[in-house]
Design brief:
With 396 residues, the chain is an alpha+beta fold. It folds into two domains: 251 residues, no CATH class; 116 residues, no CATH class. The chain has 14 helices and 21 strands. Strands 1, 4, 5, 6, 8, 9, 10, 11 and 12 form a nine-stranded mixed β-sheet that branches. It has a six-stranded antiparallel β-sheet with strand order 15-17-16-19-14-18, sandwiched between helices. A two-stranded antiparallel ribbon has the order 2-3. Strand 4 and strand 5 form a beta hairpin. The longest helix is centred in the first third of the chain and has 14 residues. It is globular, with a radius of gyration of 22 Å. The mean pLDDT is 94.
């Protein structure tokens, strides 16, 4: 049973901080060094001072001081929050809108069959987040979870509550519009709780932070809830982008030898880059090589791998290049790029190759996750990310 609840959130006083744009950030793992520098310069109250630092005690002092000074103000009445993101799709310029319900979710182990993961996690990021949680005792970032919506009831109710004037709004680093609505009417809160109760939830983004919350709950049993944003898997605004693999640090790499090794599993042909980009599809990988900047299409001869990312990791990286799962986990041979053009540019700047993927579908993620399976890391890129700092939940 998914137990969601209203909570008394801390929120930035937009007037006191000079606008939410100055203090709200991308999730901690998406903040580049350049972005961090920009965030820190934007405001002494920017949330990056809490979520993107190794000085966790300083992060805790920031939250304490900001509450004391009225920079963060607590909503006295518990509420749920509707969250809308109107964004531009990077590849096409298409405009989309995605709506979510933000709530406090009761923590459950994966074995309980309430929250399902779709990828494995690494120990390092979880230890850092656990140390931060111990110091701050606060959830400052949203976990991104997906749900079914039989009959569209949840979407209809979200549409109703977002028809009013938003509680807060801002444009992010990429020019996308983010809006928040406070839902405090008890009958509406009760209705949302009823609709979500029977639904299993699929983790889109936030695996490390969810498992951190579970670990902290074992130390502090009263800290049994986590901050989530819930999005329908049927939402027309739900976007999954591909994450391409840029090959780095592979001594003795040979395009000819690799293609020869792959010829038994793939139909291989060379094509112009533009045609190759357009031809990416399920069971068809793209590969761009540095030796004479050639683009090849690799079409699998069989359906032995359920996902294209499995096909790439097992057949191409593993069998073709001898890159083990452990080497991938340690990111010894790969870098990850979202944009097709950045993959090409990485090769032109010295990488031996880049491998391109068609985006995975949400139905595939659902089938694997609810079936108890997991996918390789960075198999999915749900876009855009949930901003951090819109609402903050303190824990016991």
């Amino acid at each position: 049973m998914a137990d969601i609840a209203a909570f008394s959130a801390y929120r930035y006083d937009a007037q006191k901080v000079g606008g939410l744009e100055r203090v709200i950030t991308q999730p901690y793992d998406k903040i580049s060094p350049a972005m961090l520098e920009r965030y820190l310069a934007a405001s002494p109250y920017n949330l990056a001072r809490v979520i993107k630092t190794t000085d966790h005690q300083a992060a805790a002092r920031c939250l304490t001081d900001w509450r004391h000074d009225g920079v963060l103000v607590r909503d006295q009445q518990p509420a749920l929050y509707a969250y809308s993101q109107s964004y531009t799709l990077p590849a096409t310029g298409e405009q989309r809108t995605r709506r979510a319900l933000t709530a406090s979710l009761k923590l459950e182990e994966y074995a309980a069959g309430v929250v399902y993961r779709h990828e494995l996690t690494l120990a390092g990021p979880k230890q850092d987040r656990l140390d931060l949680m111990r110091a701050t005792r606060a959830h400052c970032e949203l976990l991104f979870l997906l749900h079914d919506d039989p009959g569209g009831e949840i979407a209809e109710l979200l549409s109703e509550v977002t028809s009013e004037r938003p509680t807060g709004e801002l444009r992010d680093d990429f020019g996308d519009q983010h809006s928040l609505w406070r839902i405090h009417r008890k009958t509406t809160v009760t209705e949302f709780r009823r609709m979500f109760a029977p639904l299993p939830l699929l983790m889109a983004d936030g695996h490390h932070r969810y498992e951190t919350a579970l670990a902290f709950h074992k130390e502090a049993p009263a800290a049994d809830r986590v901050l989530v944003a819930l999005v329908s898997m049927d939402s027309p605004g739900l976007t999954i982008l591909p994450t391409h693999r840029l090959l780095v640090r592979v001594p003795g790499f040979s395009r000819e030898r690799l293609l020869q090794n792959l010829s038994g599993d793939f139909e291989i042909h060379e094509t112009p880059v533009e045609k190759g980009h357009a031809a990416l599809a399920p069971r068809t990988l793209g590969a761009y090589f540095a030796d004479h900047q050639s683009f090849f299409m690799l079409r699998a001869k069989t359906d032995s791998c359920p996902l294209d990312v499995d096909l790439l990791h097992k057949r191409v990286l593993g069998d073709g290049l001898g890159i083990s799962d452990e080497m991938v986990r340690q990111e010894k041979c790969l870098e990850y790029v979202r944009e097709f053009d950045k993959g090409l540019e990485g090769v032109r700047q010295g990488a031996p190759a880049c491998f391109f993927l068609h985006p995975v579908g949400v139905a595939q993620v659902r089938e694997i996750s609810f079936g108890g399976g997991v996918m390789p890391q960075k198999s999915t890129d749900f876009y855009p990310k949930m901003l951090s700092g819109l609402v903050i939940q303190t824990v016991a």
